[in-house]
Amino acid sequence: MLPGFFTRVFAVLVGREGRSLHLKAAGGAAIVLVLVMLAGSWAVVAAEEGARHANLTSYPKALWWSIETATTVGYGDFFPVTPWGRVVGAVVMVVGITTYGMVTAALATWFVGREDRRRGRAHQLREETVQALHARFDRLERLLTGERGGDR
């Protein structure tokens, strides 16, 4: 059941053909972040096992720590005390910061693209209106010129 769920999530985030590159990149980065947080939680518990003053002693605590580290909240309630635990923490931080930056950039690009398309449609509508008005004026000129030419 769970692997099928992850397959569907991956297909939705990354697999669509018509999806823009920035959305694919943000989706891929989000998947990598989730995997890094899950693996990082396990790795930090393994690195901290048996260490003096260790507070990341269970997977649920480590998972909470990895979420707050990836989001740069860092409450300070849990933290690694061993060098390897801190290396894992640094990886989780870098991947988290990068992912949130990519998601923010993807959203900004989406908003800007949407506005550009809206402006493009408005410009096209204006151009079509101007062309239609020119065509009407040209017909009126031909009619007026034709009427005058016929009266002479």
* Major sheet attributes: none
Radius of gyration: 30 Å
Q: What is the H/E order?
A: HHHH
Q: Considering DSSP H and I runs of 4 or more, what fraction of the residues is helical?
A: over 70%
The shape, in one word, is rod-shaped
Structural class: mainly alpha
From the N-terminal CA to the C-terminal CA, the straight-line distance is 89 Å
What ranges have pLDDT less than 50 throughout 5 or more consecutive residues? Answer: none
What is the number of E strands? Answer: 0
Helix tally? 4
SS strand fraction: under 5%
Average pLDDT value?
83
List its traits:
152 residues; rod-shaped
Give a written overview of the molecule.
This protein has 4 helices and no strands. The protein is mostly helical and 152 residues long. α2 (21-48) crosses α3 (59-70) and α2 packs antiparallel against α4 (83-151). The longest helix is centred in the C-terminal third of the chain and has 69 residues, at 83-151. The mean pLDDT is 83.
